[in-house]
Amino acid sequence: MHALMQQRPLLISGLIEHAATYHGDREIVSCQVDGSILRSDWRQLHARAKRLANVLTGFGVQAGDRVATLAWNTHRHVELYFGVSGMGAVLHTVNPRLFAEQIVYILNHAESRYVFFDTTFTDLVAKIAPQCPHIKGFVALCSRAQMPALNVARLYSYEDLLDGASAEYAWPVFEETRASSLCYTSGTTGNPKGVLYSHRSTVLHTFAACAADGLGLSANDSVLLVVPLFHVNAWGVPYAAAMCGAKLVLPGPGVGGESIFRLLRDEACNFSLGVPTVWLGLFDYIEGSAAKLDVSTMRLKRVVVGGSAAPRAIIEKFEKHFGAFVIQVWGMSETSSPATIGNLLPKHAGLPLERRFDLQVLQGRAIYGVEIEIFDADGSPLPHDGKVFGELKVRGPWVAGGYYRGDDGAALDDTGWFPTGDVATIDRDGFVRITDRSKDVIKSGGEWISSIDLENAAVGHEAVQEAAVIGIAHRRWQERPLLVVVKRPDKEAAPADILAYLQDKITKWWLPDDVVFVDALPHTATGKVQKLELRERFKGYRLPTDQS
Ligand code: AMP
Fold this sequence. Notes:
The chain is an alpha/beta fold. It has a domain at about 440-545: 2-Layer Sandwich (GMP Synthetase, Chain A, domain 3). The chain is about 25% helix and about 25% strand. The chain has 15 helices and 25 strands. Strands 2-1-11-10-12-13-14-15-16 form a 9-stranded mixed β-sheet, with helices on both faces. Helix 1 packs antiparallel against helix 2, helix 1 crosses helix 8 (about 235-245) and helix 7 (about 200-210) packs across helix 8 (about 235-245). Bound molecules: adenosine monophosphate. Adenosine monophosphate binds near residues 309 and 329.
């Protein structure tokens, strides 16, 4: 028997309509590329998104056409989020930190029709334009007076276009399963693959993000969004902020410690999200400042950390400096980002801080809508005892079922699960602990060693700025861990000091067989350490425990 409820589709345009109607005067603060700060609100953002929809219609953009961005976190980029998807086209956010060849590949693969770019990326656009035959025009995200010198056909000023367009626009109503946005994974091997989100998957994920045991976002929050809008839809936060009418603070190109600190303070942000590297930068600034910084007016209470494992040191420092609680999340492009969220349970109330930190270094529990399971090599589910590692698989209405244009064949296994490529444990309460990417796990004497656990322990040493652990071939044990460290410029330590420090922090037989110091670690465009390149660099390295 069919129910008798209305069949209203879940559309992204509904989020911005709601924000404008019920939270119209809630602020949007945007740090622009020229260094100025622009203050507007959800009502103005909605009006400009409608003008943009009229511009796109005038360009001949059809439903399903891809419209690309190469842009920072600014109000204009958020307008594109709502204007492009709202009118039925597909917002294709491109990570400008990728190599130019990868950007060309991605734009051609997606056959994107227009590119909206921040003027910071003018040289990049000049380089890629001749190689992207599908692009019909480029729009610089600036006023006419700020137009860059760029020799491409059909170059427009965004503000000029908006000025010339009407703010009267009725968002079209269509099927909720239509594509809304497209993000490419920054694969460390092979070509990037496109994850194609729908209006339905996005709106459902947004409900989960706003839920109290999700990210718990509400109209009372002032959110500093450090996660880039070009990375997995900024973990869904632009949509969630519109759904609940939160104040949105957009840092533009300035994500260094000092500008993050100022924005948190000046905009009274109580909530923020970012990858660990950003927070390490913030604490470098705070701890390196000659004069003690006044944090008495800061309101920061909750900080979401994900993208890679949140080191315990970050969790402790947020508590120490701000009394703020770190919520670790785990997710990936294919899960629309946060899929497990590190909120605590009633039984954890009143835990001593050290015990609480033990829980916060875990990647959290599955939120409703995401099913997770760990499997052994034969595909059998493993116990949730917090000890046994297995391959983590996920399924749910906002988890990818395949890649754009069928790349990589079937994305799901025979039973409909999406294999994440991460290795994890799950404990009795459902807390996930990511121990590795499956290709990074170190196999020593038939047992597995978690590189992430070792790295997290190592960054707790005062002289360690960044650490990566890789497996090195060993004649007796197959593989043993090598710890590669970038030292803090102002601190000294010898390998033996670091090993002594680790001694009581990790399982004894996990202790790295050697420590080497390097000037820098290789990173992907999303800030993850490129283990593949590191393994390549240390290929043939002979550990001191493996000498003949
Ligand atoms: P991306 O698709 O670029 O967001 O990358 C997703 C991958 O980042 C995951 O498969 C994990 O390997 C890693 N990742 C994300 N969040 C975490 C976390 N909290 N702890 C450890 N690894 C993480």
